[in-house]
Amino acid sequence: xxxxxxxxxxxxxxARVISLSVGEPDYPPPPQVAELTTAFxxxxxxxxxxxxxxxxPELRRTIxxxxxxxxxxxxxxxxxxxxxxxGKHGLAGAVLALVNPGDRVLxxxxxxxxxxxxxxxxxxxxxxxxxxxxxFKLTVDKLRAAAHPRNVALFINSPSNPTGAVxxxxxxxxxxxxxxxxxxxxxxxxxxxxxxxxxxxFTSIPALPGMRERTLLANGVSKTYSMTGWRIGxxxxxxxxxxxxxxxxxxxxxxxxxxxxxxxxAALSLSEDExxxxxxxxxxxxxxxxxxxxxxxxxxxxxxxSVPAGAFYIVVDVRPFLGTPLGASGEPVKDDExxxxxxxxxxxxxxxxxxxxxxxxxxxxxxxxxDADLVEGIARLARFLRLA
Length: 388
Ligand SMILES: Cc1ncc(COP(=O)(O)O)c(C=O)c1O
Hints:
Blueprint: H1 2-11, E1 18-19, H2 31-43, H3 57-71, E2 81-84, H4 86-98, E3 104-109, H5 115-121, E4 125-130, H6 140-145, E5 151-157, H7 169-181, E6 185-189, E7 215-220, E8 233-236, H8 239-252, H9 258-268, H10 272-298, E9 304-305, E10 313-317, H11 336-347, E11 349-350, E12 352-353, E13 362-366, H12 371-384
Parallel strand pairs: 1-11, 3-4, 3-5, 5-6, 6-7
Antiparallel strand pairs: 2-8, 7-8, 9-10, 10-13, 12-13
Helix pairs in contact: 2-9, 3-9, 4-5, 4-8, 10-12
The structure holds pyridoxal-5'-phosphate.
């Protein structure tokens, strides 16, 4: 979708393309990131060398301190933490380490679109648990119904991309107990842990009773610190799995980029006060734009709009519009993907269709965009849906 949007923008035809499909924050990283990384490269005169495969010790120690401060969970920086090439690489490594051919990987839907391919690459079977009717969240009943001797791992992503759903502590305790009954590993994708609204509270799964030993905590600097391009993530978990992940990583990438590790070190070394002094105004701005988007979307009759408690996306239900006359031509569309393409072609608005996220008939709109784009993008969507 992004490539098609860029092509249309480059062709100079018609109206400006408004992208509501982006998956990254629009605020700057903390200034220390550029300052300290530039100084590091200068000191080394550009001669960066291999690092330890699982990341430089200072960064692993800093990750351990940050995770401990934030969640209370203690990890050994040498044996239980790996620095990865972005959060995605950490998740993929976790799946490769845990899953053997034929193993089942449980994925509540809607899900982040990379989870099923990760299971497939490991020779496993992605098992999708539909959570459209339970507020986009897995319930104990649904997890129980999916019980199977070959179940090995369960993905939990809270706050969620694409839905913004945030699990409460009680919900996670109950899911954790059922996961323990089924002897499952939990892969806890905590990449949006700081982006919360309306008093929603983040709960880190390994901090729950009995969960540390069956959870892999995956996070990174991409979202909180707005450092998507630096490609630094990390995974914390029990030594045997981390050992397998380290072996894999050493033969696949050697180590994450040395300069990027310094950048992540600069970011993660910020105290909570320093981080919040930087992040606070940006979180406030996201809160304001979320409210703005919800206000404008709320005016569109027939469009189901879910209110996200975290991340920076809003999911809308376009199922009532499938098969109806749409856009200037009045031609109907059959599904969300065709709708997203037509919306881009007709109105030059890019959104993410959610069939690849396990939610056919839904779209995802990012509100990490300028106010004017948000309002104009929603107005164009309304015109396309023939609601304006
Ligand atoms: C749910 C989720 N997990 C993990 C990631 C991976 O982040 P990274 O850019 O650090 O690979 C993303 C990025 O979009 C995401 O949305």
